[in-house]
Amino acid sequence: MADEGWIKLYRKIMKSFVWTNSDQLKLWLLVLMKANHSQNKFLFNGEEVSVSQGQFVTGVNTLGFEFNQGVKRDKAIAGRTLWRWLKRFEKEQMLTIKSTTKYSVISVSNWGEYQESVKHLSSVGQSPVNHLSTNKNDKNEENEKKSTIYSPVIDYLNQKAGTKYKSSGKNTQTLIRAREKDGFKLDDFKKVIDNKVAEWKGTDMEQYLRPITLFGTRFESYLNQKPVKPKQRQNFTQNNDQYSNLGW
């Protein structure tokens, strides 16, 4: 299972028995997030296990460890209790469990139908949470990369600062996408670049005309600073204490 991505939740879950118990709801979400979106192999308790879409390998102790990560000891749920809840999920036809002496393979019911289209979901029995979808990490990562301003932003930076950064860099795209999620637009990026080029180009700070500095957590303050005229620029070698907390 990938560590990133998302799952879909349908509002019908609010009518499910798991909705009235926050720990059971958390367990069901854990099941969905652990389910593999493609065929895979794992080494579990010294044995190689193959799983298909919608399946994952676990055991009582492993399930308890993953469920209780970050939880205070007095709030932790015993693995045996979690397994009893899983058996109820199986009874409600939300999943199936196939166990050996070393591991268990959990299969989310109707995984294929969940993956095909939200318009073709069918129910299994009377389970009130059948309309929970599964892990779609690949599609999520693909959608996140569909920003249209990577190239315009980096091309503008290279033009103004005389640099040669690539818009395809993963870290650069992550920074730009983060600022987009904050609500900033292409013109905002250009203004930040203009402000800092006017202030830093030709000084000892010119080395910081780079994506990791310009598009990081100080982006908004750079955007709202008053423009600096070239003749007002200073040699920052002699007085750079104000920049000591920028994380460079």
From TrEMBL:
Native species: Lapidilactobacillus gannanensis
Residue ranges constituting the Phage conserved hypothetical protein C-terminal domain according to the UniProt record: 153-224
Region (Disordered): 125-145, 227-248
Lineage: Bacteria, Bacillati, Bacillota, Bacilli, Lactobacillales
InterPro entries: Phg_2220_C
Start-end of Polar residues biased regions: 125-134, 233-248
Tree of life domain: Bacteria
Biased amino acid composition, Basic and acidic residues: 136-145
Protein known as: Conserved phage C-terminal domain-containing protein
